[in-house]
C-alpha cells in the first residue's frame, strides 16, 4: 500500500493543475498494466492528507476543483507573496526599458516607428513587454498595411509606481544608471511627433 501511496503522491506533486482520482487511476493502471481499484487510491490520498496536516510540513494536499494539488499552507502566504512580488518586479533589460520608454512617450506607436527610433529590431522587446502586461495593443494605424499600435497599460503605472502618465519624468531628467536610456533615444523622445502635428492641421 505504501508503494501505491508513493506513486499517488508523486502524481499529485508533479501535476500543475488539480489532478482527479480518475486521472490518477488511469496513469497507475497503465503503468502497472492492471486495474487499480478506485478505493485503494482514495485510501492512499486520505493517508497523504493526514500526513501533510503535520506542522512539520509547510505545504499540504488540498482538494480543489474536483481534484488534488500540493499547495503551501496559508500561514506562509505573506512570505510567498513578497517573493512573487519581487520576482514580478525584476529589472527590465536595457532593450526592454528603452522600448517601453519610447512607447510611453510616443504612444500610440507602431513597431516600425519604434524600430526607426531605436535603430534595431524590436520584436523580442515588444513580446517581453506584452508578456509582462506593461504594454498593450491599442488598435491599428490608418496607414498602409494597418500596422498594430502599441501603448502602455495600467500595469505599466503600477510597475513604475506612478499615478498617471503626467508623472513620467522628462527624458532630459533621466539620471545615469545601470539601465540608462540611450542619449540619442532620449533626444528623439523630446522631438515633437510630426505625424500627430500634421494630422491635427
TrEMBL record:
Task: State if Cell division is listed as a keyword.
Answer: yes
Question: Please, which domain of life does this record's source organism belong to?
Answer: Bacteria
What are the entry keywords?
Cell cycle, Cell division, Chromosome partition, Cytoplasm
Q: Which InterPro entries match?
A: ScpB_csome_segregation, WH-like_DNA-bd_sf, WH_DNA-bd_sf
Q: Can you supply a Gene Ontology BP term from the record?
A: chromosome separation
Do you know which NCBIfam families this protein is assigned to?
SMC-Scp complex subunit ScpB
* Entries under PANTHER family matching the protein: SEGREGATION AND CONDENSATION PROTEIN B
Protein name, UniProt field: SMC-Scp complex subunit ScpB
Query: Which species does the entry assign this protein to?
Result: Xanthocytophaga flava
Q: Gene name, please? A: scpB
